[in-house]
Amino acid sequence: MSNLDFEKPVLELEAKIAELRNTSSDARLNIAEEISRMEEKADRLLKQIYSKLTPQQKVQVARHQERPHFSDYIDHLIEDFTPLAGDRLFGEDLALPGGIGRFKGQSVVILGHEKGKDTESRVKHNFGMARPEGYRKAQRLMQMAEHFQIPVITLVDTAGAYPGVGAEERGQAEAIAKSIETCLRVKTPLVSVIIGEGGSGGAIAIAAADHVYMLEHSIYSVISPEGCASILWRSGSYAGDAAAALKLTAQDLYALGLVDGIISEPLGGAHRKTTEAIESVGKQIEKALQKMTPWDTETIIARRHEKYLEMGRAA
Q1: CATH number of the domain that residue 122 is part of
Q2: H helices within the chain, ranges in order?
C-alpha cells in the first residue's frame, strides 16, 4: 500500500503486527493477545488521525492510487456490463469509459473517469483526464439512456479535463459545456458520486445530476490546489493554503448545500477496504434511484433546474 506521510505511526504498527503474525506459527509463542492489543491501538490511531484531517491531507487521501477505481465499481456493482465506445465524431476516449448494464436488477447507463492502477494503465487511460471525444461520448450515452428511459449513473474521479493542444483544437470547452447541458436536460434520473477527485469542469461535465454524493474523503473543486497556488501565489508550495481556501472537502460542500450527501468510508479511507467502500456507494445510489422511481419527466427536469438555479441565488 502506498504510504501517506500522516499515517506513518499506523503503518509502523501494522508492520509490527505483520511481523508478529509471521512468527505466530511457533507453538512456543502465544502472541494472540499482543496482536489484538496492537490492532486496537492501530484502530484508535486511525480514528484520531482521520477525525482531524486537514484539507490538504484530504487531497492526499482522495488521490490515493489504491482507492477503488471506476473499473472496480463496475466489477462489483454492475452485472452484464457492455462497454460502448466512441463519440461518433472523432474516436474513443479511454479516460472516460461507459456503457450499459444492470444495477440491482435495473438497466442503467453508467460512465465515469478511470485513472488506471499502474504506469501502463494510467498512460492508457490518460490519468483519468478526458478529451473532447470523451465528453461527447458521455452526451451520446446519456441521450441513449433518455431514449430507452433508463437511469444514468456517473462516477467522478479526475484531476480535470485534459489541457493538451489537441484537446483544445478539437473543442474541449464546447464539449464540456454541451455535456453539462445534456446532464441538465436529459429526461431520466441522473445520480453522480465523487469517488476520488472532482476537478473543475472535467468533473462537472458529468456531475450536474439530480443527486450528487461525495465519498467522505473525496474532493470537489473548481481548480486543483496546486493550480490555484500557482495562480495566486506563483508557487506550488502554497497548495495547502489553497486547499483550505477552496472549501473542497465533502464536509465543506455539504455544509454549503452544493452536494446532497456524504458517503462514509471505512476507517482509514476507501483504499484500506475497497469492497466495503464500493458497497456503501452502491447502497447510496440504490436509495437515490428508489426515491425517483417511478419518475415523471417534467418533474425531474423542473427539480433539477431549480436545484442548480438555487445554488446561484444570492441570499
Answers
A1: 3.90.226.10
A2: 8-23, 32-50, 55-62, 70-77, 119-124, 132-148, 165-169, 172-185, 200-204, 225-232, 239-246, 250-255, 274-291, 297-312
What are the grid coordinates assigned to 239, written together? 497548495
Contact 191, 288 (CB under 8 A): yes
Helix, strand, coil tally for the chain in percent (to 5): 50, 15, 35
- How many percent of the chain have pLDDT more than 90? 79
Q: Are 158 and 111 in contact (CB under 8 A)?
A: no
Considering just the CA atoms, what is the radius of gyration of the chain in Å?
21
Cα separation, 300 vs 67, whole angstroms: 32
Place of cell 471506476: 70
Confidence (pLDDT) at 255:
94
Instruction: Read off the pLDDT of residues 273-297 as tens digits, 9 standing for 90 and up.
Output: 999 999 999 999 999 999 998 999 9
**Residues 134 and 25 both lie in one domain:** no
Number of domains in the chain: 2
CA-CA distance, 209 to 306, in Å (whole number)?
Answer: 12
